[in-house]
Amino acid sequence: MDILKPELVWVDGRCYRVLENTKRTNDVSPYFEDNNYQLDDKDAEDECYDSNIEIVPHGSTKFKHAFHVPKVFFPFIIGAKHAVRKRLETETRTEIQIPKFGQDGNIVIIGNDCKGIISARHRINLLMEASRKKIEFTHFLSIPLNDGHVIMKFNMFKNEVLTNSGKTSRGVDETIFQTPSKLHLTIGVMKLLDDAERNQAVEALSYCNEHIVK
Predict the structure, then answer these.
(1) Which tens digits make up the pLDDT trace of 163-189?
(2) Which GO terms describe its cellular component (predicted)?
């Protein structure tokens, strides 16, 4: 991605730049992650049934379930030398198909019964939940404070600090202050790992703006 020409996203008349963390994306080693993930028995209690998981017939004797997963999770689900995926397949008696490294696509779980497919899906969900904690934040939600009155008060404060403390306090200079036109209040940070998650965030914010803010 050209840092000087980033992707732009418009939300309620405001334009936001999408600066992808290219280093994180490009430096991930293909299919390499520790395989010491352990599943709590409590987490598997409800694996026998889940109405939110769509399972369809596959062939004459098997069943299939496909679902979207951001590709950044693939190495965590596969594991070193495919160890995690193989263990999941063995424990749930399913076949788990994952797109090749660097490619987008759905994960497909194929099994002889619905119970095994649901169990595999729940375990993958838990893997993703644990793995997401290891990934850096990608976006932040903020309220712009670049109102004329706020900027005026900010400049007054900055000038007062620089005048009274700038010459006597070490490290106090103009560089420690935010650019007035970029003043904002950060109210939350997010991990949006692909276009699908970014679109969900845009829809959620648009809904809040229409039904809560207005």
Answers:
(1) 887 667 788 888 899 999 999 999 899
(2) nucleus
